[in-house]
Amino acid sequence: MSTLVLDSTSRWFGNVVAVNDVSLSIGPGVTGLLGPNGAGKTTLMAMMAGFLAPSAGHVTLDGQPVWRNTETYRRIGLVPERELSFGYLTGRQFVRANADLHRLPDAAAATERILEVVDMVEPAGRRLDTYSKGMRQRVKIAAALVHDPAVLLLDEPFNGVDPRQRMHLMDLLRRLGDEGRTVLFSSHILEEVERLARHIEVVVSGRHAASGDFGAIRRLMTDRPVQYAIQSSDNRSLAAALMAQDSVRAVSLRADGHLDVQVGDLGSFAVSLPALARQHDVTLFELSPSDESLESVFAYLVAR
Amino acid sequence: MNATIAKLALQALLGRRRFFLLLAFPVLLIGLVALVTALVDGEAAYEILPGLGYPLVLPLVAILAASSVLGPEVDDGSIVYLLSKPVNRYAVAASKWVVALAATLAAGALPVLVAALVTGDSTRAGALFLGAAVAGTAYSALFLAISAVTRHAVIASLMFVLIWESLLGNLFTGIAWLSIGQWGLRVGHAVSDELPDPANLPYAVIASAVVTVVGVWFAGDRLRSFSVKGDD
Prior knowledge:
The structure holds two protein chains of two kinds.
Chain A: E1 4-13, E2 16-26, E3 29-34, H1 41-48, E4 56-61, E5 64-65, E6 76-79, H2 91-101, H3 107-117, H4 133-145, E7 151-154, H5 163-178, E8 182-187, H6 190-196, E9 199-204, E10 207-213, H7 214-222, E11 226-232, H8 235-243, E12 248-253, E13 259-263, H9 266-279, E14 284-289, H10 294-303
Parallel strand pairs in A: 3-8, 3-9, 6-7, 7-8
Antiparallel strand pairs in A: 1-2, 1-4, 4-5, 9-10, 11-13, 11-14, 12-13
Helix pairs in contact in A: 2-3, 2-4, 3-4
Chain B: H1 3-14, H2 18-39, H3 42-46, H4 48-76, H5 80-83, H6 89-118, H7 122-149, H8 153-171, H9 180-189, H10 201-224
């Protein structure tokens, strides 16, 4: 059981602040580090993995500083976003090299054991440059886990991995978290994080925007004002009916046959819309969020 | 020293296309010297070695070897796979240097010896080989250190060899005191008087040793502080 702690940590590059005064504590279980691209997730990960010095503050693992401390790697397994450039090695050779670098007493057995855990025994004899993205990702995880670390850090582990492989990876990470390991993964995709992590840390523009249980954050995100575009058999009468609802803040008719609706409370709007449509004998053709981009979700969280 | 790191470095060296370039230099050098020996005589052919083989082929081979064992991994960041391990960074640097040194001796110093033997005089050949081995040792450490600092390691190393050692070294004799190639020649001079005598011997030996040790240590220190840039 290990805990990774960031204490008022900042990191700047010249006069660009990548991480701004972030304090958080990551304990056993699966934690998702969520944020849009450019939010500073990679910078945070690099500092937690000892590959970047904090400009201010401290990053410690069980009380020990991580920067310029090679011994911490006995307890950390790192899965970088970087592609493997050891294409000339087979999967088994690569994992074995990692085991050897850790000077494991029985490196060969550890290699086979971990290849089994990530379900890569069969293709392990092939060269890395013949692997699919998902297979490379699993070999990277095997290499990071071969020394049985208490902490596993994964930078964007699901990027470019096909859905089936993604399910497989998620099961694996969930299992590792259940075993009591501290598993932290970063992602810019909300759905990925909500499917895997119980605890979420949100970073936006280098700041720590939200922290906590997934449900609480989901509620924050769903209760925000949202803009919808609706197409129906009778936009005008639907608009009139919608305007009477408490959850609706504004309605406008667009020239292209769409109805723009600004919703204050997503939950009650979602429940009342179908009933309202039936009541006024209006058929709904299309309902689409017009600002559902993750950036707007994050912008809302930060503005709160 | 770490055997796993050395093995990976060797695989990186042999697995890249640069390896054939590394192989081409000695083949061309020995071929050229053999050709001139056959067409003219050994003395004329020997002139190729202090003129081209020693001051150019040897450092170029050292640059290729040193930058191949470290440069690409630092460039594409895949060195984090090696560094996220509880392995002493100085041992990482030393292991990579040993591989670069072996390649420099095999593809740089040894061909100089073979080519010199083709021209006749074996004492002179031995002296030149000794000089090349000393210079190759210091060169590979210096170029490894440069590879650990800058992405433009090959350019920076080439500038050191071509502009500092060759161009300015020919214009100003004082540069011999700060030229790895000249230190090697001075050590070789102790074996055969046919080699020039640019600096004094103890200085040449000590300076070569200092560059080697400091170069490897510095590379290790840079690896201790290796940073991943947040470019997301």
